[in-house]
Design goal:
Strand content: 5-15%
Distance between the termini: 20 Å
Number of helices: 18
Helix content: 40-55%
CATH class of the domain at 232-421: Alpha Beta
Binding site for Mg(2+): 249, 270
Oligomer: single chain
Bound molecules: ligand FFO, guanosine-5'-triphosphate, magnesium ion
Structural class: alpha/beta
Strand order of the largest sheet: 3-4-5-2-1-6
Radius of gyration: 30 Å
Order of helices and strands: EEHHEEEHEHHHHHHHEHEEHEHEEHHHHH
Keywords: Cytoplasm, GTP-binding, Hydrolase, Magnesium, Metal-binding, Nucleotide-binding, Potassium, tRNA processing
Shape: flat
Function: Exhibits a very high intrinsic GTPase hydrolysis rate. Involved in the addition of a carboxymethylaminomethyl (cmnm) group at the wobble position (U34) of certain tRNAs, forming tRNA-cmnm(5)s(2)U34.
Binding site for GTP: 245-250, 264-270, 289-292, 358-361, 382-384
GO cellular component, one term: cytoplasm
CATH architecture of the domain at 232-421: 3-Layer(aba) Sandwich
Largest sheet: 6 strands, mixed
Length: 496
């Protein structure tokens, strides 16, 4: 679409006010060829009624906020008095003329201001992600950076924020573009061979580009094998499992610091998987409480146990809760309980998973012996008194950091200037990229296989190299992505 034919779009850029009240200030943003006309009509008494086009002298200088009345163009009523600011194309977020109004953040102000803008016939409400989509279309950012913007808005922990900002800054896009450039170089060699087969090019061009293709293949395979970026974006999943009545729900509630799950003396209380989202030392974590594992004739409990097992299997880390003592304070053989439970689970990773010996308070003076039994890592605690829980959280934080590839403490208040993670190449962060990279890898494998025998025509190899490059180009948006854009931007929030 030509720029002049575009609508001028608008939306509330700040959060919607909630029932409990708004924020102090709300930001309404407009972008498009007539954003400056809107600024005049909404701030100059009588300008809209005069019907004339906006006069330039009324415009503030770009990037200098000015205090103005915000008017209803229909009747001239002053809705609020706030700051107006404009960015002149192409030096703006979207690359178009952008106008912002910083108004008071109440529900009535926002409603009236949005209704006033809607009265301007050349303005329409923006779709989710449309500002950022326009920024992409004007070359302000590549698709991975645009997706990074959505991740940055959604980031709930420090580590997620760092990963998203790095992507907004273009680190991931540059990595994929560098890989694509290397494929395009190989392609140029192959095409030279196709176009001028009789000239003095070295024998076996397909052979000659193999090292470059092979190097790229291994870099992409390594990148695909690394799940840390996606894990950080989605949150690390921890499953609490164990026999009924062990205190799993009590432990979850203690960690969540609220009554997320029902606790009772009845064995078999929990049936559904109950997820609690936490910020653990700056890392996003989802902890799931699950039904106690046992045989049952109750079909509902059976389903609960099935769900518990399924979650234990897919979780990044398992906490197996077993009781240290029965209700009378009699010490139980917890290593035997733990071994039985681990044997019954299909997944147990000794490096990350942990046995929690709960109800330590019931043991009184009786000591259950040293921690660490038969090679299973264990910690003793009491979900009733809270004893041992800070130690558990400390240990979990360190394990989660390791799972995400950080050195312990990387999220401490004064982190190292650049953690190891910041120096390493940026990780894969989303399924869309993973799928395209898998396509790229498959095409590279075909190209390598075809060039291996030394007799494959360059055309054949070139076609797969071209497909591999195209797959990478679709990640950054450099080639053929028109069909992707609706899908990518619809997950954004409105106003972004
Ligand atoms: N008030 C307000 N705050 C905001 C935004 C906004 O749109 N409005 N942003 C929106 O997401 C983020 C900031 N992102 C922005 C990115 C680029 C430009 C911009 O004007 N870019 C020009 C000029 C660059 C320069 O002066 O160096 C350009 O790229 O040409 C503005 C905001 C967060 N804070
Ligand atoms: N003394 C003592 N009692 C505890 C402790 N933790 C939990 N309990 C009690 O043990 C009982 C079972 O606790 P829950 O947290 O419901 O146990 P659960 O593992 O979730 O049980 P199911 O959901 O049935 O599998 C409740 O009466 C709790 O109050 C503890 O550390 N010490
Ligand atoms: Mg429970």
């Amino acid at each position: 679409m030509t720029d002049a034919a575009r609508n001028t779009i608008y939306a509330l850029a700040s959060a919607l006010p909630t029932r409990s009240g708004g924020a102090g200030v709300a930001v309404i943003r407009l972008s498009g060829p007539r954003a400056c006309d809107a600024l005049v009509f909404l701030t100059e008494p009588g300008a809209f009624a005069r019907g004339g086009s906006a006069r330039d002298p009324a415009l503030p200088e770009p990037r200098r906020p000015v205090l103005r009345p915000f008017l209803d163009p229909a009747n001239g009523e002053v809705i609020d008095r706030g700051l107006a600011m404009r960015f002149a194309a192409p030096r703006s977020y979207t690359g178009e003329d952008v106008v912002e109004f910083h108004l008071h953040g109440g529900r009535a102000v926002i409603d009236a201001a949005l209704a006033a803008i809607a009265r301007l016939p050349f303005c329409r409400l923006a779709e989710p992600g449309e500002f950022t989509r326009r920024a992409f279309e004007h070359g302000k950012l590549d698709l991975t950076a645009a997706e990074g913007v959505a991740d940055l808005v959604g980031a709930e922990t420090a580590a997620q924020r760092r990963q998203a900002l790095r992507q907004v800054d273009g680190a991931l896009g540059r990595l994929y573009e560098a890989w694509r450039a290397s494929l395009l170089r190989a392609l140029a060699h192959l095409e030279a061979d196709i176009d001028f087969p009789d000239e003095d090019l070295p024998q076996g061009v397909a052979e000659a580009v193999r090292p470059e293709l092979a190097g790229l293949r291994s870099a992409i395979a390594g990148h695909l094998a690394d799940r840390r970026g996606e894990r950080l974006r989605d949150g690390v999943s921890i499953a609490i499992v164990g026999p009924p009545n062990a205190g799993k729900s009590s432990l979850l509630n203690l960690i969540a610091q609220r009554d997320a799950a029902i606790v009772s003396t009845v064995a078999g209380t929990t049936r559904d998987v109950i997820d609690v989202h936490l910020d653990l030392d700056g890392y996003p974590v989802t902890i799931a409480d699950t039904a106690g594992l046992r045989r049952s004739h109750d079909p509902i409990e059976q389903e609960g146990v099935r769900r518990a097992r399924a979650r234990a299997e897919t979780a990044d880390l398992r906490l197996l809760v077993v009781p240290a003592a029965d209700d009378d304070g009699q010490a139980l053989d917890w290593p035997a309980l733990a071994h039985d439970a681990i044997a019954a689970l299909s997944t147990w990773s000794p490096d990350t998973d942990l046995v929690i010996v709960n109800k330590a308070d019931l043991l009184g003076a009786a000591d259950p012996g040293p921690e660490g039994h038969h090679g299973i890592a264990s910690m003793r605690l009491s979900a009733r008194t809270g004893a041992g829980v800070p130690e558990l959280l400390g240990r979990l934080g360190a394990t989660v950091a390791t799972l995400l590839g950080d050195a312990p403490g990387a999220n401490d208040p004064a982190p190292l200037a650049a953690s190891d993670n910041m120096l390493a190449p940026p990780p894969l962060t989303r399924a869309r990229h993973r799928e395209a990279l898998a396509d790229c890898l498959a095409a590279l494998d075909r190209a390598l296989a075809a060039s291996a025998d030394g007799v494959a025509p360059a055309e054949l190899v070139a076609e797969d190299v071209r497909l591999a490059a195209r797959a990478l180009g679709r990640i950054t948006g450099r080639v053929g992505v028109e069909d992707l854009l609706d899908v990518i931007f619809r997950d954004f929030c409105i106003g972004k």
